[in-house]
Write a structure and sequence with these properties.
Elements lengths: L3 H15 L3 H8 L15 H5 L4 H31 L7 H15 L12 H11 L1 H18 L2 H19 L2 H17 L1 H9 L32
Helix pairs in contact: 1-4, 1-5, 2-4, 4-5, 4-6, 5-6, 5-9, 6-7, 6-9, 7-8, 8-9
Main location: membrane
Catalytic activity: an acyl phosphate + sn-glycerol 3-phosphate = a 1-acyl-sn-glycero-3-phosphate + phosphate
Pfam families: G3P_acyltransf
Length: 230
């Protein structure tokens, strides 16, 4: 059993790290204004790509993934340093930190809880806590993205298979945590699912449109005329 205090600290630290809005920070530093004013209004790499800056989109993807991985590995390292030992830290500790990081990305306190959809951060968490599952999930995402060109479909497929893979390749806390992340992803992509069903979902790389009041919902909603999945 994990120490309740360790779980609490892992959750708090993971949330605060996950809440750093790298997509928004990078686009503002690059002089592109507020990323929330274009496309879906979200702060993830897919929406950053719609600015036409592939370098910024890649940097956002790596940083968003990295903060999930660092949250999980940092929690495990700190728990081990406190005396439990790296190999004896309960797997729930890094998993809880990782889940909290995704929640922080999706609902960052700094942006009035209006964030992204957490796919890159989730994949970072999975890679850090159960790398075989993470590699297979990334391969699933890449395959679906290449075949269908829908970021939302690729993300939901990858995160849906992760809990089952974890049951075979990791431990129960991993499977439980990945299931929570999968459900959260489905919730954040609920409008994308409706557009996929209706055939109106946009494809990866589609040019950005202003997220005006008439053409798109406010940035705290999950709507918009694209498949933002980060």
């Amino acid at each position: 059993m994990a120490d309740p205090l360790a779980l609490l600290l892992a959750a708090l630290g993971g949330y605060l790290l996950g809440a750093v809005p790298f997509g928004l920070v990078l686009t503002r530093l690059a002089g592109l204004g507020d990323i929330r004013a274009i496309g879906s209004g979200n702060i993830g790499a897919t929406n950053v790509l719609r600015t036409g800056r592939k370098d910024l989109a890649l940097a956002t993807l790596l940083l968003d993934s990295g903060k999930g991985a660092i949250a999980a590995l940092g929690a495990q390292a700190l728990a081990g340093w406190s005396g439990a030992g790296w190999g004896t830290v309960a797997p729930a500790v890094p998993v809880v930190a990782g889940v909290a990081a995704v929640v922080g990305h999706n609902y960052p306190v700094w942006l009035l809880f209006r964030g992204g959809k957490g796919v890159a951060t989730t994949l970072g968490v999975i890679l850090a806590t159960a790398w075989p599952v993470g590699l297979l999930a990334c391969l699933t995402w890449l395959t679906m993205a290449v075949l269908f060109r829908y970021s939302s479909l690729a993300a939901l497929t990858a995160l849906s298979v992760a809990p089952a893979l974890a049951l075979a390749l990791a431990e129960r806390p991993h499977a439980a945590g990945f299931a929570v992340l999968g459900l959260l992803a489905w919730w954040r992509h609920r409008d994308n699912v409706r557009r996929l069903v209706n055939g109106t979902e946009s494809r990866i790389g589609q040019a950005a449109k202003p997220a005006s009041a008439a053409a798109a919902p406010p940035p705290d909603s999950d709507g918009g005329s694209d498949e933002e999945a980060r």
